[in-house]
Inverse folding.
């Protein structure tokens, strides 16, 4: 009997051990056991994958040769300790991948040795000595970077899990991973328990280490937030945004709230790019370990939709439009977008356009998704990623404004009528930027920050981000009485948004976007309509801008245009002061030097400039009392934190209701080699308002060859089915739809 019981006991233990091994199979987070076997079978036959692997191997071999350094934290972004710990997290993740693919224990040993060093120091680490952040980390000055570290290191741990002994795993989980996850979550709820790109990283970090450790409590905390936690609904973060006003938290809430049904992320493309890595890498882990969550189907598959939206928020060079806080030059060549493209292709509908972007990126992830992309490229499936005009709604239900992008030939017009964009939002409703073949004609300034450059404010946001970059005058939109939209206050701006009036890209020759804003200035309505029109009378498509202002008071209105390039000529006279003075005292005006002031001499005002071998002309219908001002960014900036770039402002004083109409042409070229200028003059000889009523606005455009075109927009009925009859100067016009052009 005893012998029988022993046999049963052994049998049961064997079953439990087998079940345990099956339940804890590793790797399973990003790499999978089956995926690794497939990758190994394809090595040497898939050029893009093989090249990515060899490049990574050379980098990590060089790191291993340098030895391991886990210094005591002391620096802000850009300082040595910050950079070293940031590099360590990436190197560990990559070494773990190499161990799995190449089956070379030196990479596993390297990861193990570094993890043990971190285990040794983390137990006694206090909060980071730099106190600037609203949520301090331990390895880094803010919990955000600590979360970055754990997202990457979770992947490394998964890759070397079976290499480590049970005692080593227990030691790491007890002294490093569990305390680390607790610090960025339950110890730092002001960071973790919210809807924000910061907390997305935190959720992913806690969830990914939870998946590796098979810790249900951590996984649930990641998906749903900290249970039964009450937060101060008035508390704000370092950027002035509410921390948890709505009480929502967790990874799923961070999918539900910031993303619109179209995949637009409310903080803008720069932060969408930053957040996409934790969104997608945790989603991939959930898909592999917890397929029952169906994460790629969540909210109608919005995570995969968001990648298409993000790629469409880039110019011809792949640089993201710097909406809200956004650093210029950030592009889809960033590693986060390599992740996005590969995962989108593998888990989506295998869009061949994504393969063409992967070819440009010239690297792939070393996992199942990267292999699929590399095989697609190898098999000649790549097709150009076709960026077309697109309207991206904002808000969780798509009802909080949006961003419209009109594309025609090499021109791209970006029209922002989005919601505030969380604490990274700017006060720039109905603003625009304009590009030709990736070059800015009219710029959005972006953020005021030198990211990870320690000499400039520790690599963090500069004070000028609030005093200049976020203010309305820093953007190409209307400013009333030298005040910013929503008083420049987040608690007001977060309650409101413009409303789409019209988006129509059905006619490739005439594409229009139009929106209305009624809350930026109480008692004032702004209705801006922008169109890109392709017509045989012009060398290239031109942009038409109609901005109607209706107010219950008399105001001063400023409409700035931040053009890029060298002034060529104007058709008005202006005076240049001998001593420069700021244009104003606050709300961003204190950062503008007043470089020239002119007055109207003709019905139309013209400004032409040259940039990167191309000519551009602004033609505006102006009034005799308008002031024309040249300005330059950089006043009250003793540390030279701002770029010294030019702007042109049309100022209209003592006015109640008014209409700003302008057109911008891209035309001709100049070669410094042949020293020849081609088509350097504007094709517009006159731009005139021929009718402006509550219901209709009509603009005539006369070309240099005396051909006259008429554009009419219906101001109160945007229906495509509506029919209109209108008499202008004794001539009847009839049409269907929201606009007329002929």
């Amino acid at each position: 009997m005893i012998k029988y019981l022993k046999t049963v006991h052994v049998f049961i233990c064997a079953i439990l051990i087998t079940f345990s091994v099956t339940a804890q199979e590793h790797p399973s987070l990003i790499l999978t056991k089956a995926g690794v076997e497939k990758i190994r079978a394809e090595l040497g036959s898939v050029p893009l994958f093989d090249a990515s692997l060899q490049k990574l191997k050379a980098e990590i071999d060089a790191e291993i040769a340098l030895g391991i350094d886990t210094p005591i934290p002391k620096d802000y972004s850009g300082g040595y300790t910050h950079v070293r710990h940031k590099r360590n997290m990436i190197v560990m993740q990559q070494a773990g991948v190499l161990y799995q693919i190449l089956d070379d224990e030196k990479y596993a040993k390297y990861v193990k040795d570094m993890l043990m060093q971190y285990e040794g120091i983390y137990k006694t680490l206090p909060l980071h000595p730099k106190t600037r952040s609203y949520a301090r980390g331990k390895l880094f000055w803010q919990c955000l970077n600590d979360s970055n570290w754990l997202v990457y290191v979770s992947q490394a741990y998964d890759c070397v899990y079976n290499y480590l002994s049970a005692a080593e795993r227990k030691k790491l989980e007890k002294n490093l991973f569990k305390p680390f996850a607790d610090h960025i979550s339950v110890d730092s709820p002001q960071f973790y328990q919210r809807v924000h790109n910061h907390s997305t990283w935190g959720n992913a970090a806690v969830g990914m280490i939870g998946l590796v450790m098979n810790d249900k409590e951590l996984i649930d905390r990641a998906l749903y937030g900290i249970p039964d936690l009450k937060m101060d609904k008035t508390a704000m973060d370092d950027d002035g945004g509410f921390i948890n006003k709505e009480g929502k938290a967790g990874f799923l809430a961070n999918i539900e709230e910031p993303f619109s049904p179209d995949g637009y992320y409310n903080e803008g493309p720069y932060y969408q790019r930053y957040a996409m890595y934790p969104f997608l890498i945790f989603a991939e882990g959930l898909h592999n370990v917890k397929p029952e969550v169906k994460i790629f189907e969540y909210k109608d598959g919005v995570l995969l939709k968001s990648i298409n939206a993000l790629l469409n928020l880039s110019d011809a060079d792949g640089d993201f439009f710097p909406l809200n806080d956004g650093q210029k030059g950030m592009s889809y060549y960033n590693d986060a977008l390599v992740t996005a493209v590969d995962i989108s292709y593998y888990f989506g509908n295998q869009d061949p356009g994504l393969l063409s972007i992967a070819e440009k990126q010239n690297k792939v992830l070393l996992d199942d998704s990267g292999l699929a992309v590399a095989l697609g490229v190898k098999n000649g499936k790549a097709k150009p990623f076709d960026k077309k005009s697109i309207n991206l709604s904002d808000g969780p239900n798509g009802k909080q404004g949006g961003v419209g992008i009109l594309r025609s030939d090499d021109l791209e017009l970006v029209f922002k009528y989005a919601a505030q964009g969380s604490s990274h939002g700017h006060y720039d409703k109905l603003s625009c930027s304009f590009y030709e073949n990736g070059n800015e004609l009219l710029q959005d300034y972006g953020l005021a920050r030198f990211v990870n450059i320690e000499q400039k404010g520790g690599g963090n946001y500069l004070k000028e981000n609030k005093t200049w970059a976020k203010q309305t005058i820093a953007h190409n939109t209307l400013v009333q009485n030298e005040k910013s939209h929503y008083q420049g206050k987040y608690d007001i701006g977060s309650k409101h948004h413009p409303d789409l009036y019209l988006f129509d890209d059905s006619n490739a020759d005439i594409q229009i976007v139009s929106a209305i804003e009624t809350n930026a200035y109480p008692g004032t309505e702004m209705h801006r309509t922008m169109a890109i029109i392709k017509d045989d009378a012009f060398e290239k498509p031109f942009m038409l801008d109609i901005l109607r202002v209706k107010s219950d008071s008399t105001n001063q209105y400023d409409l700035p245009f931040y053009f890029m390039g060298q002034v060529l000529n104007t058709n008005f006279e202006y005076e240049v002061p001998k001593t420069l003075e700021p244009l104003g005292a606050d709300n961003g005006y204190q950062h503008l030097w007043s470089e020239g002031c002119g007055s109207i001499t003709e019905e139309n005002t013209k400004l032409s400039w040259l940039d990167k071998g191309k000519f551009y002309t602004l033609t505006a219908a102006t009034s005799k009392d308008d002031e024309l001002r040249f300005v330059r960014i950089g006043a009250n900036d003793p540390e030279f934190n701002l770029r010294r770039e030019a702007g042109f402002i049309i100022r209209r004083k003592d006015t109640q209701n008014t209409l700003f109409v302008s057109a911008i042409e891209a035309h001709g070229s100049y070669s410094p080699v042949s020293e020849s200028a081609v088509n350097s003059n504007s094709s517009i000889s006159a731009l005139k308002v021929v009718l402006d009523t509550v219901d209709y606005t009509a603009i005539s455009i006369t070309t240099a060859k005396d051909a006259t075109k008429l554009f009419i927009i219906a101001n109160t009925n945007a229906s495509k089915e509506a029919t209109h009859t209108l008499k202008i100067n004794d001539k009847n016009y009839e049409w269907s739809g929201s606009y007329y052009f002929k």
Summary: Residues 80-102 form the longest helix (23 residues). The two ends are 100 Å apart (CA to CA). The chain is about 35% helix and 25% strand.
